[in-house]
Specification:
Jelly Rolls, Beta-galactosidase, about 15% helix, binds 2-acetamido-2-deoxy-beta-D-glucopyranose, glycoprotein, alpha+beta, Lectin_gal-bd_sf, glycosidase, 41 strands, about 800 residues, signal
Length: about 800
């Protein structure tokens, strides 16, 4: 036994005999998750650590806690952590352990969804593309190569988490872990292998001995050792397996956005309705997907065509600001539910159905009771007689009566301010420098278009094949860009000969640019996610050698569906020249030269310290394709989030001080139709309800986290513009609360706040009484009371009552409200 073996033995003995301090016991029964033997209500929210920065994490987690959550959930992102085979990255915003520790520091629980398939609108659902270089690889089924890699990665993550004592069983915050993800949606495509695979997943997970329960979401076939959970817009009608608690792992708080998509909105009224109903019907754990959506930095956006912003209309917005009234309206619900934790988890409950989708639920325990009145009717407010009293419950809402007499919360009555966010030019003296940029430019070099075809002097990085290859296999997804280049010798004897021919390319491309004899002849992409298309453009033949260069561009690899590993990308062929008389020349089995990526990236133009300083020119061109632009700008003062307005640009990628802030595509406008000017929260929500931003740029604003910026020195902004645009409209802005608007009901306390950024400077309007019907009754002191309470303050709190405002002259039975609009 060598020294090394003794060391290992010592480590084993040490681990076996050291007892973790504060170990927490997590178990469950048919009702709830139990922590140290006690049933608990868990209110969790998803925050994905790579979609923000370590500098943002503490404040995001704090705001989640203040919003009434007691747990944070995240996926683990395999392709981010293992970008190259067996080369791991846990630095910067990939520091999972640090993120977990911050959650623990705030006293919150954590839910770790390892997957390692994650969907999540994340590039390729989180899978590293290099997995495809194994023989006989098929993802997410009983396949040795896949299971072996899944096992290696999952075990590595579990070991890392164990070493940091992060599982509750070791005193850490993690109370639940997930293996696989939404497999129930696709299991039928995999037949019996799918069933064996999901059993293997369960047995494998169990073998890792993490000391906390495992969950499988959206998997009705989940093996007995796993808790199956629900994902969706509403989960009140979901019933888990026997002896399993009712858990809702994905309550979609909004929806994500595509390039070309409109802005989705899920109202506070509807989201709180869904949550209240879930707990009314015996639910005990739910998770907001997302609580903070964040940003798809770099090339992490899924696809195809998922936008860089992953705001999700979540309770905390992309930049880390409170999304009001959603955040505040839910906070009130959370604190109420938490105050009823014992009775909701231990009480008996009985439901009574009143017809027309109206129901009541009474929980009782040892003589105390709490009551829910739920109205799932999507049109009618309903008045019922409940235990001798009359209650009117608005359509599509739940009223909560913690003593079964007084309604203290109704999901449709929002007593929280609506914050109107604005994007402003920084106010400081050098203001001009924020938008009056000095630009430099240089062209992307295309020398390889000529030289690559000469095999006796091949360029570095150029490979050859006598066939058309799957793009992601050639690039290993190290770049969006892949050149497919070939040549064709033609003379007058050739049946195809003629001045004009058509180049026809069958393509599964997200974007295709075609060059004929070095000249750009066309660009094509297809809207609405239908990316299998035929490109056709005429070209001029010359005698002798004609070169054809096709640049295929991916915009996020598919992240959802069965067999995503079998989805091919790029130019799959055939590629043909077609003469006017329909004679064709098939070039698909020509010798093709392949070149991955951009020359500019190879030269490091996106970095601050580039050797190629001299190659930048002034007098920038406009609307020219494949151009690099560079400028510098000052960091706006203060703490407000910083965004770039990239209106005027086409499509490309942007770097600030070498950090890739993501793809941009502001020229891609959202469809003109399908928006609403006001949103009716009633009735089932879907991702296509309550849309705004029709006909506008689908993403104009791009987040630059403050930690990417220099405090004192100027910042360097580099753009790679692929389609052509005008960078002179670009400006740097800060995001802040411009106005706060509220309609609060009598009997509530209204908080008004500029969210830490500024003070309330002006009250535009205030009326206590019946403001909806043009002030048929109104307290004359309204404005002065609000002015006195709020002007000059960061936030103020007003009790909405006649006591505060004096007589309003409204009828006794009238429900009075305070309507205000304040400026920050
Ligand atoms: C992609 O990465 C894998 C794993 O590192 C490697 O085996 C394979 O050769 C790479 N493919 C290409 C085309 O570079
Ligand atoms: C791949 O699968 C085929 C049959 O599907 C089999 O003949 C071959 O041996 C497998 N190769 C490897 C490396 O497992
Ligand atoms: C209910 O009351 C009984 C008797 O007072 C007590 O033993 C029990 O712990 C109570 N149950 C809960 C869940 O508080
Ligand atoms: C190909 O490259 C070789 C070596 O550099 C050179 O001698 C030859 O002229 C080139 N051929 C063509 C057609 O450019
Ligand atoms: C389009 O953008 C403008 C300016 O930001 C805005 O005023 C307008 O309301 C937007 N249109 C829609 C339909 O959202
Ligand atoms: C079917 C569906 O819309 N699924 C969504 C559920 O949430 C995941 C996140 O894990 C999204 O990626 C899916 O789009």
């Amino acid at each position: 036994m060598g020294f090394f073996n003794i060391l290992i033995l010592a480590v084993i003995l040490f681990t076996t005999f050291s007892f973790p301090v504060n170990a927490t016991d997590v178990s469950y029964d048919g009702r709830a998750i139990k922590i140290d033997g006690q049933r608990r209500i868990i209110i969790s929210g998803s925050i994905h650590y790579p979609r923000s920065t370590p500098e943002m994490w503490p404040s995001l987690i704090k705001k989640a806690k203040e919003g009434g959550l007691n747990a944070i959930e995240t996926y683990v992102f395999w392709n981010a952590h293992e970008p190259l085979y067996r080369q791991y990255d846990f630095s910067g915003n990939l520091d999972l352990v640090k993120f977990m520790k911050l959650i623990q520091d705030e006293g919150l629980y954590a839910i770790l969804r390892i997957g390692p398939y994650v969907c999540a609108e994340w590039n390729y659902g989180g899978f590293p593309v290099w997995l495809n270089s194994f023989n006989n690889m098929t993802f997410r089924t009983e396949n040795d190569a896949f299971m072996s890699e899944m096992k290696t990665f999952t075990t590595m993550i579990v070991d890392k988490v164990k070493q940091a004592n992060l599982f509750a069983s070791e005193g850490g915050p993690i109370i639940l872990a997930q293996i696989e993800n939404e497999y129930g949606n696709i299991i039928s495509s995999y037949g019996n292998e799918g069933k064996s695979y999901i059993n293997w997943c369960a047995n494998f997970a169990e073998s890792l001995k993490i000391g906390v329960p495992w969950i499988m979401c959206q998997e009705s076939d989940a093996p007995q050792s796993m808790i199956n959970t629900c994902n969706g817009w509403y989960c009140d009608q979901f019933w888990p397996h026997q002896n399993k608690p009712k858990l809702w792992t994905e309550n979609w708080s909004g929806w994500f956005k595509n390039w070309g998509g409109k802005d989705p909105h899920r109202t506070a009224e509807d989201l709180s309705f869904a949550v209240a109903r879930f707990y009314q019907y015996g639910g005990t754990l739910q998770n907001y997907y997302m609580y903070h959506g964040g940003t798809n930095f770099g090339r992490t956006a899924g696809g195809p065509y998922i936008a860089t912003s992953y705001d999700y209309d979540a309770p905390i917005d992309e930049y880390g600001n409170l999304n009001q009234p959603k955040w505040g309206h839910l906070k009130k619900l959370h604190s109420l539910l938490m105050s009823m934790e014992k009775i909701l988890t231990y009480g008996q409950y009985t439901n009574t159905d009143y017809g027309r989708m109206m129901s009541s639920t009474v929980y009782s325990l040892n003589g105390t009771r709490v009551c829910f009145l739920g109205n799932a009717n999507n049109k009618d407010d309903i008045t019922i007689n409940f235990e001798g009293r009359k209650y009117t419950v608005p359509a599509w809402s739940v009223s909560i009566l913690p003593d079964c007499v007084t309604e203290v919360y109704n999901t449709a009555r929002v007593n929280t301010q609506t914050s109107v966010m604005v994007k402003e030019l920084p106010a400081e003296a050098e203001e001009k420098r924020h938008y009056d940029f000095e630009w430099q430019w240089r062209a992307e070099h295309f020398e390889h278009l000529k030289t690559s075809l000469n095999k006796s002097s091949p360029l570095k990085g150029v490979t050859y094949a006598n066939q058309l290859l799957d793009q992601k296999i050639v690039t290993n997804d190290t770049s969006d860009y892949l050149w497919y280049m070939t040549s064709v010798d033609v003379n007058e004897d050739d049946p195809i000969w003629g001045e004009e021919v058509t180049l026809r390319v069958n393509c599964d491309c997200h974007v295709l640019h075609a060059f004929f004899n070095g000249k750009h002849i066309g660009t094509k992409w297809v809207k609405n996610g239908q990316y299998s298309f035929v490109f056709e453009e005429s070209a001029k033949l010359k005698r002798g050698t004609n070169s054809i260069s096709l640049l295929s561009v991916t915009v996020g690899l598919q992240n959802y569906g069965a067999y995503i590993d079998k989805v091919k990308n790029g130019i799959l062929g055939p590629v043909k020249l077609v003469a006017p008389n329909s004679i064709e020349k098939d070039l698909s089995t020509n010798e093709w030269a392949y070149k991955v990526g951009l020359n500019g990236i190879e030269r490091g133009l996106q970095n601050i310290d580039t050797k190629y300083k001299r190659e930048w020119h002034s007098n920038i061109p406009f609307n020219r394709m494949f151009v690099w632009y560079k400028t510098s700008f000052r960091t706006p003062k203060g703490k407000d989030a910083v965004v770039l307005d990239l209106w005027g640009l086409g499509k490309g990628s942007a770097w600030v001080n070498g950090h890739n802030i993501g793809r941009y595509w502001p020229s891609y406008l959202a469809d003109e139709n399908g928006c609403v000017s006001s949103c009716d929260y009633r009735g089932d929500y879907t991702g296509s309800k309550c849309l705004t931003n029709c006909g506008n740029s689908s993403q104009r604003w791009y987040h630059v986290p403050r930690s990417f910026l220099n405090e004192e020195e100027d910042n360097t902004l580099v753009l790679f513009e692929e389609f052509g645009g005008n960078p002179t409209h670009i400006s740097v802005r800060t995001v802040t609360v411009g106005k706060a608007v509220a309609h609060a009901y009598e009997g509530n306390r209204l908080e008004l706040s500029c969210d830490g950024s500024r003070v309330i400077s002006k009250i535009n309007f205030a009326s206590f009484g019946n403001p909806t019907s043009k002030g048929s009754c109104h307290s004359p002191n309204s404005l002065s009371v609000v002015e006195k309470a709020c002007i000059g303050k960061e936030s103020c709190s007003i009790e909405v009552s006649e006591k505060t405002f004096g007589a309003s002259g409204c009828g006794k039975s009238q429900m009075k409200r305070l309507a205000v609009e304040v400026e920050c």
